[in-house]
Amino acid sequence: MDQGDAVPIAELWEERRYLLDVAHWMLGDPGAAEAVVDEAYLRWYGLSGAVRRQVAVPRSWLAKTVGGICLGRLALPGRDATGHAAGHGGPREAEEEAGRVVLTALESLSTAERAAFVFRAFGTASGTAADIVGRTERELAELAARARQLVQSQRNRSTAPHQHDAVVRAVHRACLTEDGELLTSLLCPDVTAFFDGGGKIRALTGPLHGSRPVADNLLTLLARRPHTTLSTRSVNGRTGLVARYGRQVTAVISLDVANDRVAHFWVMLNPDKLRPWNRSPTDGGTRPDTRP
Q1: In whole angstroms, what is the distance from residue 100 CA to residue 93 CA?
Q2: CA dist., res. 46 & res. 81, Å (int)
Q3: Are 183 and 87 in contact (CB under 8 A)?
Q4: pLDDT tens-digit map of 215-232
Q5: How many other C-beta atoms can be found within 10 angstroms of the C-beta atom of residue 162?
Q6: Does 29 share its domain with 64?
Q7: DSSP 106
Q8: Window from 116-130, 149-163, 216-230, 261-275 with minimum mean pLDDT
Q9: Which tens digits make up the pLDDT trace of 252-261?
Q10: pTM across the whole model
Q11: Burial (0-12, 13-18, 19+ Cβ within 10 Å), 25
Q12: 278: Cα within 13 Å, side-chain hemisphere
């Protein structure tokens, strides 16, 4: 997927479910199937942007890749279908709000921005950091500055709760009615949206800037399709948006509001990070705060 493209969330999750079905059918093990699909998405993101643009039907490419990985696992002598892939547990939740907010902000940065921020924070020499990130020293400085501003904006939320709630509910109405003009009017001109797919679902791979591009991409992502719903819920202690496909939570969206306009969207699409939202009370865990 390219930076300017967007795909309805229903298509993204139908694609992943289809790939899981293919892998499960071939291997007979749901855990192994998920590992194979994750590996296929890793290979997709391992392609250069130019190569990805040449793939006419990404779903077919991914299905072929899944099939090849499964055949490779089945052909391994002395091993079962699960191979040696290990599961990944989620990071421990930060005990203080400041720490949690900073971690969320860093996760939402592009790879280059996150690397620039971390390298600068730990005092890595500019020339060395620039070589690692693959940017010039001037570009590195700009990336680090942008990342620092974004992290600070997450730490300094000053909008009153009732103002924040009113803006988010207006955004919700605009998305439900697919009103692009209304949604654009609710965003800061320089609004930025971040999409975290974790490399496990086709999502935008970097930040998107500007009220019109952000509005258009969000409306496409959250397009009304059969079995899709969008509701307001408490996300990290403030009103946010939760999208579902059927009974599955497929996206959790946090918003930063400044001067009665949305300054940042943080769109969580990573299936691993959405597991707590899909955990039933009988699983023995506590669900995230979902109070209106």
Answers
A1: 7
A2: 24
A3: no
A4: 999 999 999 888 999 999
A5: 8
A6: yes
A7: H
A8: 116-130
A9: 999 989 888 9
A10: 0.57
A11: exposed
A12: 17
